[in-house]
Predict the 3D structure of the following.
Amino acid sequence: MGWSRSAATGAFSMALVTQGVVAVTVGRWLDRHNPRWLLTAGSAAAALGALAWSAVESLVAFYVLWALLGVVMATVLYEAAFTVVAKWFDRSRVRALTFVTLAAGFASTIFLPLHDHLIATYGWRRALVILAIALAAICVPLHAVVLRAPPGISGPGHRARRGLAVREVLALPAFPAVTVAFVASSFVASALAVHQVALLAESGHTTAFAAGATGALGAMQVPGRLLFAPVRRWLGTAAATGAVFASFVVGVGILAVGTGTATVIMFVTVYGMARGMTTLLRASLIGDLYGAADYGAITGVLAAAGTAATALGPLVVAAVHDRTGGYDVARWALVAIAGVAFGASTRIGVSRGATPRATAHPGR
């Protein structure tokens, strides 16, 4: 389209900001209502948004579209799914969340190479139409038919229960450290997710290799998520939290050291596993610390903060790239920010076997 890297990346950043603003409201809504229709409507809107994207001609329309897609993202991505799962399961929560994230871990593995193939074969506009049809055919009926309200959430008494205010969430024990850790890691993860293909291509790799390596990150998240539960049981929540963020720093550091083929493979392995564990840690830690009753509201506040960082990550890296003429400075800056996440994670201080302040369904 002839747009600069910063201008194109800014639209996605706008969507992430919108997602963060809406996340608190969505979380509170899911604390009180049946999730079926919200997630069904969000899936339908996502498919329509992909169709609209295929017809975009101007940068202004591109930004407007992604602002609307940001609202949709808040209703169908991880935070909404985690809230639904957390309210269905208590003692088996980590197992259930692991199952969900194991499936989702293959998203980039499947779709990044598929995107590359569709774009090369049909062009990006037709590729979006195909993906929109697939999205509608798979996600809309699954949400509409399968999703049910968790036990006890559908009665009027539950709807009337007051949720936590934002100021109450911010005052919860350990919440500032949790927020800093996940905000910093979200900044890094988002920046790499958007720029990794371009970074590797700029380093001399083919776009097919770059897309394949980026997709392989999703596959490497799977063993990371399988390891999370036993590591958590063995080390305890606090030590496991620090270990996950330490591996995150190491993974980002490998990419900063070099971009040769062997180094990229090492990065994909270590960083991919760390990302898999980080996602599952974020989902389970809120339940460990605070229980499931206000999981949606608490997750919404954390998502709002994290989404702001997620929005800034790609934009800042794009600006640094345009200013310095490459990714070298940006790569080491990301290592430093990952280090901030690790430092904050060591201050969360969850004791082994900590008891949440509230539970939802003890039998599950």
Remarks:
- The longest helix spans residues 261-290.
- The radius of gyration is 20 Å.
- Residues 155-162, 351-364 have pLDDT under 50 and may be disordered.
- The chain has one domain: 5-345.
